[in-house]
């Protein structure tokens, strides 16, 4: 009986997670990997979600998840929002899982990830980072070879850093707040010249 209860609860956890992922327009392959549900069940959940969402429309994305690292360095807004997400990942203990993108993360981890993403949505009205990009970001930061989370040398706030970059960078706040001049150690584009 106990085992049956546990399985029942686990199944509910999976369905609940799948509905959260659908609401964030996660790709079908992500929902399948993170929940372990079949494509057929996911399709039925989409229908059920649309029927009970009170007119809220969600798109169903089927292709491959994003893979580009450069997206997170594209402009100051995205760099700043990626740093917010990175800070949430770090404070919620989401980094350090060391899984490949094809491996299923623990359900509890996935739920925490949704918490982090929903906190980001609540704090960023002009969101620039989709759920799938956010999921790619946590994987990149976990890997740490192409992007890493580190403290800004100008103000100690967290920022996204490219470890392969020769010149050190600063956070998006320091990019605009530090006065520029002949004696300034900062230059446009977030490059620390010292
Ligand atoms: Zn800074």
How does this structure look, described?
- The chain is mostly helical.
- It folds into two domains: 2-52, no CATH class; 73-192, no CATH class.
- The chain contains seven helices and four strands.
- It has helices at residues 2-23, 28-35, 39-52, 76-91, 107-123, 131-143, 172-177; strands at residues 148-151, 158-161, 186-187, 191-192.
- The strands form two sheets. The chain has a two-stranded antiparallel ribbon. A two-stranded antiparallel ribbon has the order 3-4.
- A hairpin with a 3-residue loop joins strand 3 and strand 4 (191-192).
- Helix 1 (2-23) packs parallel to helix 5 and helix 4 (76-91) crosses helix 6 (131-143).
- The protein starts with a helix and ends with a strand.
- Residues 179-194 have low confidence and may be disordered.
- Bound molecules: zinc ion.
- Zinc ion is lined by residues 152, 154-155, 157, 170-171, 173-174.
Task: Give a summary of the structure in a few sentences.
The protein is mainly α. 49% of the residues lie in helices and 6% in strands.
